[in-house]
Amino acid sequence: MLKPSANVLRLGIPKGSLQDSTVDLFAKAGWKISINDRSYFPAIDDPGVELVMFRAQEMSRYVEEGVIDVGLTGFDWIQENGSDVHEVLELVYSKATSRPTRWVLCVPNESTVQKPEELNGGVIATELVGFTRKYFEKRGINVRIEFSWGATEVKARLLDGIVDVTETGSSIKANNLRIIDTLMTSTTRLIANKKVWANDPAKREKIENIALLLQGAINAREKVGLKLNAPKGSLEAIIKLLPAEKSPTVSPLADGTWVAVEVIVEEKSERELVPKLKRAGATGIISYPLNKVIP
């Protein structure tokens, strides 16, 4: 693979479980990405950026080696690879939820094992081999770690236990497994090559711009905008209902006895808030989704 261009930022996006959620995040941040199933070089509507797709498991190595300037991968794979990279930003999103993922040590429900020490002399299957080995070594527990090529949950009953990744725990429960310890909590990180970050001001500025807009898209995920009209006599009561960190925007209307109010609120609070606003005198209430929220 050719080295990144001096004038174009080469950005790695993860292929696999994070692929769709990453493309969606970039769309909300302002970039349109088009992926051809036969190509590892997606198109992006930004002439200053070139995209390439790698598995999240190998992304940090390619960033460290300078094959790409910047990339998105999990904290877990940075740790597994021992990569020396600059962490630009933590982005809390994953394939199914907005929660961090966890690497957990599991045994079958019918197992008598209650704590990791009881696995001494056993065999553990996992995709996270290096980190799992260090986990047991630090505790003085002698186990054999085997790499798992997939379907790791099945191997819990063929070996002594597994270390697997989970977001919600539903797959663990569905396979009648029991978590006995959490090895690591992981989130997605935007990482940059250290030489690029330190010595290339133009690319660093581009990376910082991307980070700002991606974080804005993350911030907007669980928020909505509210617009409403209110008589001035009801304004104080309405403002008291708004759970905003900062004062809402209040603008006078052509009718001097009315004002327009605009605010950003948590989406989960909207269903309880809107009826209260209506009862307090608000009218013309509009709720709308947000792409980015940048403080």
Task: Describe the structure in your own words.
A five-stranded mixed sheet has the order 4-1-5-12-6, with helices on both faces. It is flat and about 80 Å long. It has 295 residues and is α/β, with parallel strands linked by helices. It folds into three domains: 9-97 and 188-220, D-Maltodextrin-Binding Protein, domain 2, CATH 3.40.190; 101-185, Periplasmic binding protein-like II (D-Maltodextrin-Binding Protein, domain 2, 3-Layer(aba) Sandwich), CATH 3.40.190.10; 223-289, Alpha-Beta Plaits (2-Layer Sandwich). Helix 1 crosses helix 7 and helix 2 crosses helix 3 (75-81). It has helices at 19-29, 56-65, 75-81, 129-138, 170-174, 194-199, 201-220, 235-241, 267-279; strands at 9-15, 33-34, 43-44, 49-55, 70-74, 86-91, 101-108, 123-126, 144-147, 161-166, 177-186, 188-192, 223-231, 249-252, 258-266, 283-289. The mean pLDDT is 92.
